[in-house]
Structure formats: C-alpha cells, structure tokens
Amino acid sequence: MTYLSTVQLTDGPASQPVLAAVKNSQQTFPLMKSHSIVLVFTDSPASDATAWSHRFEDKNLEQLCLQISFLWRSKVTFLLSFPEKTDFTQDGVDVYRRLSMSTHGDYIIVKSADETSEILRKVISTSFFPENVGVGFELEVGTSINPTPDNDGDWVFTLLTTAMGDTKDLPDVKGTIVISQGSGYKLVAGRNMKLVTITSPNGKYNYRTYLQSKNTLLFDYNSDMMIDVGNGIVHLGVTMHSTIRTFGFPDYQSMSYHVVQWNEKLVREAFIAFRRPQEDCTFEWAFNPWVNTDDCPPGPIMQVHLLNYNGYYKGRVTPGYCDQIAHYSPQVQGFVVPENQNVMVREKTRVITPVESCSINDSPNQFIFILEQHIGNLKIYQTLAAEIEKIVNLVNPVTENSYQKEFTLLVFNDVNSRVLFSSYNPNNFIKKFLEVIPQLEYSNSLQSSLGLLSIVQAQKQNIKPTSQVFYFTNQATTTVAQIDRGWDIIDRNIEFNFFTIADGVTTEIFALPKPLELVQKMSNGRIIPLSGNENTLVNLFADIMPTNALTTDNEKYDCHSSPYTLDAFVEKNVDATVFQIVGTGLKDISIADATGTTVPVDANVHFQNANFKSLNIDTSKYTPGKWTVSISTSRGGCQLTVRHKSRNGVVYGFTDKSDADIVNTQIPLQRSALPTNEPIYIPIRIKQDTQQMTKLTSNLEIPFTLTSYDDTNSLILRRIFYYYQHSPADPSVCHGGQVDKYGQCICPERYTGEYCWDRICASGATLSHGICSCSSGFYGDFCELELLMPNATTPSTTALPFETTTKTGSTFFTGFFSVIMIIVSFHF
What mean pLDDT is predicted for residues 454-466? Predict the structure, then answer.
C-alpha cells in the first residue's frame, strides 16, 4: 500500500506490454504458488498480442503465458476499462478474452473506480478456495450445471459476465441471490443447490460456477504414460495419455472425464480411470490413450471430471488446449518446414548408437535385472543374491576416480511392474539387492504377467548405452499382458537375455511367450534354460557380460532323430569366444575347428545343466574360420549361438539415400502402407582393429549377415543382426502415425528419432527417461521456457512514474493506475 501511494500516473501510448507483464508476474514473484489468481488491470486497447495461433511452437507471448498458467494451474482474470469505440476484434483486445477463456479465469469490463472496488470486495473475495464445477464462454442459450458441493449448506457461486462487445442484460440463475452486480457482470450464489440453471439470456454471455473447497485434483496430458509429468496441452496428431491425482476427496468407486469446447460442445466421450501399473508414481490414476487427437478443434478445451460415489457424483472442470503442431513434411497440415530446420532436426536424430559409444572393447555400460515375482523362481533369486557381488565385480564397475557402470533392478507380476532402484555405486546396488530379494511378494501363478511393461521400462532406464537386460521368468508363465506397440520397438543399444526357469512340467525348453521371443530375437539376446535349483550362476554371467558380437545363431526343431550338424563361425584375433548350446537333454556334442582339429567340449564347459552348456574356448589355440558342430538331444530341438568379445565393431542401418549418414535401424518400408518400389540403401560402418578387410559380403535374408576376410582368406568379421518385418505394413509404430514414401517416420514438431519418440530438448537440457531435464533457470516440456527470478542484490529504488495506457482512457484509470499485476496465491 505504501508503494502504491507513491505511484505517479501520466498519459501514455495506447499500446502497452500487457502480455509481457502477465508472463513476468508469474515468473518473478519469489513465493509463487500453484492455483493462483492473476488479476490484470488495464485500459489498453492495443496490447502486445499477435494474431491468435494454436501452434505453440510459434512461442509468442500469448502462448508463453498459457504454458506458464498450465504449469502453475493459475487463472488469469482481467478488469478492463476501455476507451470509447474500442475495436474488440483486434488481437490487442481479443487476447484478454482468449487468455481468460483458456485458463478458466474471467474478463470483466468496468466503468468506474467504484465498480472496481465492488468487484474486489464482493467478487474476488469469494475466491479463497475456488474450485470450478462449470465453465462456459460466449453462450447464447441457457444451460444447467450439477454443482455437487462438498457438504449440505455449502454456497455455490456463479459469476456471469458479458461477452466481449456485447451490451445485452445478463441472464438469471434460478434459486440464487445476487451478491454483486455491475455493468458487465453479475455474481449470484445459493445453498443446497442440486442444479444451477441459467435462464433467459438476451445476448452472448460467459459463466463460471465454482465452490469454495479444499478438495481438488491435478490432471495432465503427456505423450508417454510412463512419464509422471505433463500439462493441459494436447498435441494434435499425437496419441496422448492422461493421468490424474485427487486431493481431499472421500474415497470414490471410479472416475471419468470427457472433453468439451469452451462453448460446451462435446469433443470426446468419457474415459474411465484405472490405477497405473507402477506404484511409485505421483499421479496414481490414468486413462486409456486418446488416439484420434486430430478430432479435437484447435484451441481451448475443458476436461469435465466426475468422481462416482455409488450413484452420485462429485465434479470438477479443468482447462486444456489443443495444440496444432506440425509434422516434418510439407504435405502435412499445410505447414512447410524451412529446409535448414529440417536438416537441423535430422542431424539430431539418435537412431543408432555411434561406433565410438558401442561396447566394442569392453562390456556394456548398464546392466538391468528384471525379476518376475513367481514363487518357482525364489531359489534362483536366492542364488543370484548370494553371488550378486561377484557378478557385479565381473565388469570392473569402479576405477580409482569414477564409477564406470550402472546397475538397475525391476520387478513385476500380473498387477504391477516397478523400477525399484538404479545406482552407479555397485556397493549400494548390492546392498539394496540383498535387502529386496527376501522382501518381495511371490505368487504361485501369474495369469497375465506385465513383462512387456517391464521391457518398456527397461528401455526408458537405458540411459547409459549400451545395456544388457537379464529377464528371469518361470516356464509356467505362458501369457504376457499386451500393451501399446511401443514394446516391440527395441533399441539396437540394448540386449535382452531371457532366463527361463523350469517349472517341472513344461518339456519344451524354448517355451517363451511369442512377444518375449520377438524381443529376444530383435535384440540379439539369448534364451537360457535354468533348473529350479541352480547353486551357482556366476560363471554363466562371466560368459554373458563381456561378449558383444554374435557370429552364429542356428536352431533345429528335431535334434534327437539324428544329430544336428552345422557350421559355426569363429573370427580371428578375438579376446574371448563363447559357444552356448540349448537342447532338451543334451547328449552328444562335438566341435572341430576350420582344419578339422577336435575341440574338447567338457574341458571348456564353464556352466551347464541338463539342457544348457556354456563353453568358453581359447580360440587362439585353434584355426579360425568355419568350424563344425554336431548336437544330439534326448528329445526336441536344439540351438547353437557363438559370440565373441571382439575388437571389431559394426553399425548398420537402412536409408533412402546412398550418401545419408543418419539411418534407420529397421527396414522402413515395413512401416509404409503404400505400394512402393523405392530403393533402400544399407550403409555399414565398421570399427576395425589393425586387420585389413579385402572382401565384404552380406546376406539380406533374415537374419542380416555380414562377413569379411583378410588377404590370407582368414575370417576376421562375421556379424548377425535381426530386423523387423511388420506384416501388414504398420505406420502406427511411428509416434504420430505418419510415414513418407520410403516408410520413414515423419515426426511431429519437437520430436525426433527413428520412431519419433525422442523429444528435442532446448539447448543446455538433457534427454533423460524420456523427458527433458532442464538446466537451472529453465522449465517446460522441452526446457524452452526461461524462469526469471528477481535479483536479490538489487537495491530498492524510488518508484518511477507510471504511464497510463491511453490519452483517452476512462475516468476510472485516469489518476488511478494503469497496468499492475496482483497475484493472490492459494495453496492447500
């Protein structure tokens, strides 16, 4: 009050930076709270607004104000005193309507200082815990709202305001008393109201019905339900997930929400909430994804939330916005991306791991354990816990100055899938692992496990590529719950190894649900059958963790009628070679090198059980090249894989250009629904040791095989890669669901990557767990917004004269004040 009494007022230009003030007011107040009311007093008919745009990538001041308001859940309310003959269609004026409509605030045109005082004392004063239960703008007919107050006798308030440019009388509300009324507003209230009925409108009007309640909710949209943050913005063309958390409400049976426009027109039917599968989340409820977001008209929307109490409801409405983003294609939505911007985005694409980051001379950088909570796995987990320190130390996780590796643990059953912990410090991981194993709850059977969800979570935890995943499952678990197609998009920098634990009933040792088998193949992983009572596992992990190059992967479904004889490929000058053989009741196994010299089997066995052998062979004692292996089993089929720890690294991909250096890891034509015959190139990058390659051949059948020899015709490189073949072609694997003529995904604005799931974070931010981690002083979905805080060291100064916004302004603002932001904070 002392400060306001010193303000000096002078005439000024009509144009004033109102939006800049709205933006800065929400950033510079050091004690800013959520759910605030931003009161804006102005008489400017020419603010700093630009044309109304529903594309938030334009980043104009109006959109920045909205993003901040959605982040803080604040409502923007304008008290407006315009000069005569103001053009309400101009953006400089219309923006007041747009901002209040988008944030569920109000705009009130006032005629005098007395009217302003009345509004502050009798209208704004009723907003100490305002919870909106009904909102509508520019309506021309009556409407009804079920207010659902918290308690009998609670007041229900309805604020009616005149639509911009309208001069007709405001409608009535049945069964209420008038608390305050002016030239452009009317506030009414009533008790024990089961229905708020607005009648007899003469022109366009706005209304907001609200309660005074500490029972509230937080609702967010996000492009990925695994991410626990978001806002009220729907990106058109992108499948949007939604999450919710309630505060203060009594226990309810269920909840739903549907979407309407600002004029109450229905946009989307109701979705029913379900509890999110991960327990360690902030927003414990979620809804089915909104797939057809293109149906949403660009602009403000509102979510109508209903909490069901055995036949009666509690309701709330929250603001939202449909953002008309563009895809990176001149043909989509009529938006042409500047060529330099398109190049910039493609250069940021992270579709394959750069060779320098590949695990070529060392083991992977991250190790992720996924444990299925089946009671039949307990003995294996006890063995794992007893040897976890030895297993962790196999990869030399610590140097004198730093931690080299990361270790992560996930657990799942048929109800939950949870990331328990992840640590760079191996001692912390070992300690927590030992604590968790005896505390887990185990089930006798899993009806439909959430293993695929764990696989999705594991990929989100893969923040230090490359990674190995160790997935333990019981053979009795034959079904996994289906989730979005995202689960079968497996990164090339992560390898899934499946340990199948015998249940004493299943005789097929390759028994693995088909979706998991697909993940295993696509990631060049392993299937490792275990008995239910293995006493040691450390040697098995010693054979798995260092090897990084697959040279042989063959299987046959009948290895018992006659021995299965096959070729195995062994490279020259490798650091380690591991043969792993799978079969039901393995019997006779023989191995001979490229010259026919016998390689002893038993002497090289590092780990074995009745159905599995892992041989660690010192191949420097033998001749490399094409070896011969023979396998017999008691029944059923068998499989042989050969892997090396190699100093030669290979990265390959698919692209539409022969000179492109940004490639897809899968054949893009498999995503295109169009019958095309476009050429697809396969660029290959090889990081070699000192050996020179004189010949390079490849096989484009499944799997993709690459072979090379030196000038002495010795095998120095052999690699096997698997890739997807979606049949029929399926563009839905792309985030945004759009492909070009080659089948390559067309990414929505601000997204990149082969499948368009990676966000393009602003400069200085880091992509982590699917979200942009912002540097200090920035926020927003992509860290594109700067947080402006006051300089605590700035000395106080004498108040400078303020300028009024117009020379012909109303008598209210002449001699009073021009643009001032009052923030009334509420928190609970």
Answer: 80
pLDDT by residue (tens digit) across 268-291? 989 999 888 666 677 888 898 898
| Sequence-distant (≥ 6) Cβ neighbours of residue 594 within 8 angstroms | 570, 622, 623, 624, 625, 626, 627
Q: First-to-last CA distance in the chain?
A: 27
Per-residue pLDDT at 480: 94
Give the amino acid at 633: T
Contact at 8 Å (CB) between 46 and 90?
Answer: yes
Closest CA to 611 of 637, 591, 590: 637
CA distance 472 to 410: 11
What is the pLDDT at residue 689?
61
Helix residue spans in 352-478 (DSSP H): 378-393, 426-436, 451-461
**Is-contact 263 136, C-beta < 8 A?**
yes
Amino acid letter, residue 482: Q
Structural domains of the chain sorted by starting position, each given as residue range(s) with its CATH number in brackets: 2-209+789-824 (no CATH), 216-323 (2.60.40.1930), 353-543 (3.40.50.410)
Cβ(211)–Cβ(157) under 8 Å?
yes
Residue with tokens 């008290």: 79
Sheet hosting strand 75-80, strand order edge to edge: 107-109, 75-80, 37-42, 820-824
Q: 67-85 burial by CB neighbour count: b if 16+ within 10 A, else e?
A: bbbbbbbbbbbbbbbbbee
Rounded CA separation 321/104 (Å): 11
Helices (H) and strands (E) in the chain, counts: 11, 48
Count Cβ atoms within 10 A of the Cβ of residue 517 and give its class: 0-12 exposed, 13-18 middle, 19 or more buried.
Answer: middle
Unique residue bearing structure tokens 């327990």? 279
Give the separation between CA 818 and CA 37, rounded to whole angstroms. Answer: 19
pLDDT over threshold 90, residue 219: yes
Single out the residue of 144, 602, 548, 107 nearest to residue 364, CA to CA: 548
Q: In whole angstroms, how far apart are CA 411 and each of 276, 405, 415, 418?
A: 15, 20, 11, 6
* Cα–Cα distance, 155 to 177 (Å, whole number): 11
User: Would the pLDDT of 798 be above 60?
Assistant: no
- Cα atoms in the 13 Å half-sphere on the side-chain side of 506: 21
Q: Provide φ and ψ at 556, rounded to 5°.
A: -140, 140
Which pairing describes strands 46-47 and 177-181: parallel, antiparallel, or unpaired?
unpaired
**Which residues lie across from 577 on neighbouring strands?**
617, 644
For Cα atoms 637, 642, 645, give the angle at the middle one, nearest 5 degrees: 155
Q: Residue 95: beta bridge partners? A: none
State which H helix or E strand residue 543 sits in: helix 538-544
Residue 341: Cβ-neighbour burial (10 angstroms; 0-12, 13-18, 19+): exposed
Cβ atoms of 585 and 633 within 8 Å: the answer is yes
Q: Is the pLDDT assigned to residue 230 strictly greater than 50? A: yes
Contact assessment for residue 398 and residue 404, using Cβ atoms and an 8 Å cutoff: yes
Half-sphere exposure of 687 (CA within 13 A, CB side): 15
- Rounded CA-CA distance 46/14 in Å is 6
User: In this predicted model, what pLDDT tens digit does every residue of 727-778 receive, in sequence order?
Assistant: 566 777 788 888 887 778 888 888 888 888 778 888 877 776 566 777 767 7
Task: Please write down the HEC assignment for all residues of 667-685.
Answer: CHHHHCCCCCCCCCECCEE
Statement: the pTM of the whole predicted model exceeds 0.85: no
DSSP assignment, residue 581?
Answer: E
pLDDT tops 50 at residue 797: no
Whether 687 contacts 773, CB under 8 Å: no
Omega into 703 within 30° of 0, i.e. cis?
yes
Sequence-separated (6 or more) residues with CB below 8 Å from residue 212: 126, 128, 129, 130, 131, 154, 155, 157
Helices (H), 226-377: 339-347
Q: Coil, strand or helix: which one is 692?
A: coil
Residues 6+ apart with CB under 8 A from 82: 43, 45, 93, 109, 810
**Residues, the chain, total?**
828
